[in-house]
Write a structure and sequence with these properties.
Its cofactor is Mo-bis(molybdopterin guanine dinucleotide). By secondary structure, this protein is of the alpha/beta class. The chain is 29% helix and 18% strand. The protein has a 6-stranded mixed sheet with strand order 5-4-17-16-15-6, with helices on one face. A 6-stranded mixed beta barrel has the order 22-26-23-25-24-27. 55% of the residues are buried.
Length: 667
């Protein structure tokens, strides 16, 4: 048995678990849960355990690489840094700093990963990405409604009489909430799952509601109509603490119940059941990420927020509309770490449409791309367009641990450390409010270096080393400086390993919202200020069209691309057995219609791309629904994102990955 060291999970996940790491002979031997962590309590998922496999993999990149005549050759760190620095200098002098694009995602939740912003701001400002493929629509929607996306403390669920899990497979993506669900059920709470696919969480529930993909907002409208008709909504909250209620009433009056039932494909009895659950609260609503990944995604989240507000479940124990919990990330001094004040200029591309904007960019054109904390060639929608854009850029530099789809296109690959080979603070702005200290426990293989080391070395060559001339601890203290008046210090965090941040356990209980009006806004003033109408609507998905009877069309099925069970997005596909095979889940009606059985090979296609795989017939799912887990690499056959659209959500800050129609054929 080796030495046990405390650490934490870096993955961009709801749970942000505490780890116990077994280290022997300078190697990570095992990753287990930290039983002293107040929320995760020693339980971790397979994705966390697989970080040991990832760290020790023989496939790790361990030396800097440069592409010469189409092939990668080893290059020294000194030469790589000199050439990259000279490239950045030349591009800035000739075209301006905005000719550099920083393409990134959120593969690592480390506090010090924010130092990439510090580097690019000190460089003068580059072309940055805005929005989020993952959850951007929902966050912005709740900013319009509440002023921020804040959730209740995990244990508050035990105050709920009714719990609605809307579009979130907790068993797969939020295992510690699943534990709380089990406890709440034992205490008598009623659990309801609303989802197009009958998932593992639905097995725990008292009620399962199958809704047509993309029609969740209309379902919320139907429930609100019933609450108003029965006169059982929270009149005091509406009158004193909300703005725009008459506009909501006009919307509800504009639709008949029959129209809604037809579009959602939900029965009238189900509407009455759901209305009774919201009427007899406190009722907590846990929202998933999938239903805001449509062109009407922001409006969908806003309509469910409106239902929560109308029914009197805002700012009370056991209530809440739980999507993100950004008050966690807001606790840190990100401003001091990122130094936005240094930026002289910048241009922004949407994370979803970065490929199109790269190819169309002028004054200046994009000449150099630096990719960190992401694998855009797998994860960004409309992969074929992404491949074209990244293939045509003059210079691409990728920070990576493995030869990913994106790294294959690079001119320079810089090998970087894993979580166990660097020190950082980890947290998640999605669920609980604990931050976790994770100290370096092993040396990295070969010449792999941390992102911070690379930024520091580049800063020396670009003339702003003074901004990076700090130790790791000094940077961590910088990030924690906003918390010192609360008695939270790096020294105390090192001692305890996990500390609860000073955030509200029940947001909005004081009825003070962060909106322009200071009230909950059914009609958003912030949206109006940004050029949107601000009104709630009965908007429908862009691609998902209502099929009439058995009438055929070119693309009759809705494609969902949910998170894989064993990998956090694309991060583990290459190190775990069996993940290179594409499984295509189909609803039972499709199997019957197309005479398909388990194991048959089919191709799924639309105008953007084609993917092949083996059929798995779902036991229960909404009719005409297809699912393919996201994250599979192109080099393993194809990624599901060859099929998905890069269209933006209605509020401009999210993706429309689920707003996707396809056809299939047997091979």
């Amino acid at each position: 048995m080796g030495e046990i060291r405390q650490s934490a999970c870096p993955l961009n996940c709801w749970d942000s678990c505490g780890f116990h790491i077994e280290v022997e002979d300078g190697k990570v031997r095992k990753v287990d849960g930290d039983p002293t962590h107040p929320i995760t309590k020693g339980k971790i998922c397979g994705r966390g355990r697989a970080l040991e496999t990832r760290t020790n993999s023989a496939k790790r990149l361990t030396v800097p690489l440069k592409k010469i005549n189409g092939a990668f050759e080893e290059i020294s760190w000194e030469k790589a840094l000199e050439e990259i620095s000279q490239n950045l200098i030349n591009v800035k002098e000739r075209y301006g700093s905005e000719a550099v694009l920083h393409s990134h995602d959120y593969a690592n939740n480390g506090l010090l990963k924010n130092l990439d912003k510090r580097f690019f701001n000190a460089f003068g400002g580059v072309t940055e990405l805005y929005g989020s493929i993952c959850w951007g629509s929902g966050i912005e929607a709740q900013v319009w409604d509440f002023g921020a996306s804040h959730s209740h403390a995990p244990e508050d669920i035990l105050h709920s009489k009714n719990i609605v899990i809307w579009g979130r497979n907790v068993a797969r993506t939020n295992m510690h909430l699943f534990s709380y669900l089990q406890e709440a059920k034992k205490k008598g709470a009623t659990i309801t799952v609303i989802d197009p696919i009958h998932n593992a969480t639905a097995k725990l529930a008292h009620h399962y509601v199958s809704v047509k993909p993309g029609m969740d907002g209309l379902l919320a409208i139907a429930i609100m109509k019933e609450l108003l008709e029965k006169d059982v909504y929270d009149k005091e909250f509406i009158e004193k603490y909300t703005h725009g209620f008459p506009d909501l009433c006009k919307l509800l009056d504009s639709l008949t119940m029959e129209e809604i039932l037809d579009k959602t494909e939900v029965s009238r009895d189900i509407i009455s059941l759901l209305a009774s659950l919201y009427e007899s609260g406190p009722t907590s609503t846990y929202l998933g990420l999938g239903m805001q990944r449509y062109q009407n995604g922001g409006n969908t989240i806003r309509l469910i927020d409106a239902l929560v507000a109308l029914s009197g479940n805002v700012g009370i124990n056991g209530g809440g509309s739980h999507f993100g919990n950004t008050q966690v990330g807001e606790s840190f001094n990100i401003k001091e770490l990122s130094r936005q004040d240094l930026k002289e200029t910048n241009r922004k591309f949407s994370m979803m449409t970065q490929a199109k904007e790269m190819m169309e960019a002028d004054e200046p054109p994009i000449k150099t791309v630096i990719v960190t904390c992401g694998n855009p060639l797998t994860q960004v929608p409309d992969t074929n367009s992404v491949h074209k854009a990244f293939s045509n850029v003059e210079t691409m530099i990728v920070f990576e641990q493995f030869m990913t789809d994106t790294a294959l296109l690079a001119d320079y690959i810089l090998p970087v450390t894993t979580v166990f080979e660097e020190t950082d603070i980890y947290f998640s702005s999605m669920y609980h409010g604990y931050m976790n200290y994770s100290e370096k426990v092993v040396e990295p293989p070969g010449q792999a270096k941390s992102d911070l080391w690379i930024w520091t070395e580049l800063s020396k060559r670009l003339g702003f080393f003074d901004l990076f001339n700090y130790t790791v601890d000094e940077f961590l203290e910088m990030g924690l400086s906003s918390l010192t008046e609360k008695g939270i210090t790096l020294e105390k965090l090192k001692e305890k390993h996990h500390i609860l941040l000073p955030i509200k356990a029940v947001p909005w209980e004081d009825r003070r919202f962060k909106t322009p009006s200071g009230k909950y806004e059914f009609t958003s003033l912030k949206a109006s200020e940004a050029g949107y109408s601000g009104l709630l609507s009965a908007s429908l998905p862009g691609e998902v069209k209502k099929e009439k009877g058995k009438e055929s069309s070119r693309h009759p099925y809705t494609l969902l691309s949910i998170h894989p069970l064993r990998s956090n997005h694309s991060q583990h596909y290459h190190v775990l057995k069996g993940m290179d095979k594409a499984t295509i889940d189909i609803s039972p009606d499709i199997a019957l219609e197309r005479e398909l059985k388990n194991g048959d090979r089919i191709r799924v296609y639309n105008d953007r791309g084609v993917l092949e795989g083996e059929v798995k017939i779902l036991k229960e799912a909404h009719p005409r629904t297809v699912n393919i887990d996201e994250g599979r690499w192109r080099t393993m056959g194809e990624t599901v994102n060859v099929l998905t659209s890069s269209a933006l959500s209605d509020n401009g800050l999210g993706s429309s990955l689920y707003d996707c129609v396809v056809n299939i054929e047997k091979l």
